């Protein structure tokens, strides 16, 4: 099967071995992220996704904060592995913090009470779509990335350090950088177990 979009999706992989030498400029990365998020669909065109982009020392600060937060809760004998993992994220070039604006979600719940229970679910879906769009767009520029979830452990630190509003709820952290080593092989479950087709 030949389809440019499918090939882009296949090209998007989780890259753990990241470096800080980007093949494109910070400005280019920023524009790419903005466009990918802006054009990602959301229910009722609610546009609930919010993003903070961190480069260089600001990016390293995020992972230092994360490491110190984890140091307080991870047993000392197990912390070396945790530290190694966090340091591998800090070795990248930048991080993208994905948030959802809960004021928008609450406003929609009030405006459309019939769907009130669904808006938080749809918000999560919108966030996932935005993350996937950004990740795929980065891959097209030969920028590696991995998606992490240290929220809610780091939420207060992030809000204090970068001044995000109370109504922005952190949903994911995407580390990005140069690809120092490619992703490994990926296994797939049998199509017969995953898909049902009726004609």
Task: Report on this structure.
Pfam families: Nitroreductase (PF00881). Keywords: Cytoplasm, Oxidoreductase. Its main location: cytoplasm. Residues 9-177 form the Nitroreductase domain. It is found in: Cytoplasm. With 199 residues, the protein is α+β, with helices and mostly antiparallel strands. The protein has a domain at 48-181: NADH Oxidase, CATH 3.40.109.10. It has 8 helices and 5 strands; from the N terminus they run H-E-H-E-H-H-E-H-H-E-H-E-H. The chain has helices spanning 4-11, 26-38, 56-71, 79-90, 102-111, 119-140, 155-162, 191-194, and strands at residues 18-19, 49-55, 94-101, 144-148, 168-179. Strands 1, 2, 3, 4 and 5 form a 5-stranded antiparallel β-sheet that branches. Helix 2 packs antiparallel against helix 6 and helix 3 packs antiparallel against helix 4. The two termini are 21 Å apart. The model has no long low-confidence stretch (mean pLDDT 97).
Low-confidence stretches: none
Number of strands: 5
- The average pLDDT value, as a whole number, equals 97
> How much β-strand is present in the residues?
15-25%
Give me the CATH fold name of the domain at 48-181. Answer: NADH Oxidase
Q: Report, as a whole number of angstroms, the end-to-end distance.
A: 21 Å
Q: Superfamily at the CATH H level of the domain at 48-181?
A: NADH Oxidase
Number of helices: 8
Largest sheet: number of strands, sense, barrel closure: 5 strands, antiparallel
Share of helix, binned? 40-55%
- CATH architecture annotation name of the domain at 48-181: 3-Layer(aba) Sandwich
Shape: globular
Q: What structural class results from the helix and strand content?
A: alpha+beta
Give the radius of gyration. 18 Å
């Amino acid at each position: 099967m030949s389809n440019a979009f499918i090939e882009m999706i296949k090209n998007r992989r989780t890259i753990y071995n990241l470096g800080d030498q980007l093949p494109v400029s910070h400005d280019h990365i920023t524009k790419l992220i903005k466009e990918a998020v802006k054009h990602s669909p959301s229910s009722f065109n609610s546009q609930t996704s919010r993003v903070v982009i961190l480069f260089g020392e600001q990016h390293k600060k995020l992972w230092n904060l994360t490491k110190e937060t984890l140091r307080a809760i991870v047993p000392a004998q197990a912390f070396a592995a945790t530290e190694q993992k966090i340091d591998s994220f800090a070795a990248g070039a930048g991080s993208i913090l994905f948030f959802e604006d809960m004021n928008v979600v609450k406003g929609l719940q009030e405006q459309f009470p019939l769907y009130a229970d669904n808006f938080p679910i749809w918000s999560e879906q919108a966030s996932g779509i935005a993350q996937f769009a950004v990740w795929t767009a980065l891959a097209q520029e030969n920028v590696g990335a991995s998606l992490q979830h240290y929220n809610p452990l780091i939420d207060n630190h992030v809000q204090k350090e970068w001044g995000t509003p109370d109504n922005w709820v952190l949903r994911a952290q995407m580390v990005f950088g140069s690809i120092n080593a490619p992703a490994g092989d990926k296994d797939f479950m049998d199509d017969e177990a995953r898909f049902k087709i009726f004609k």
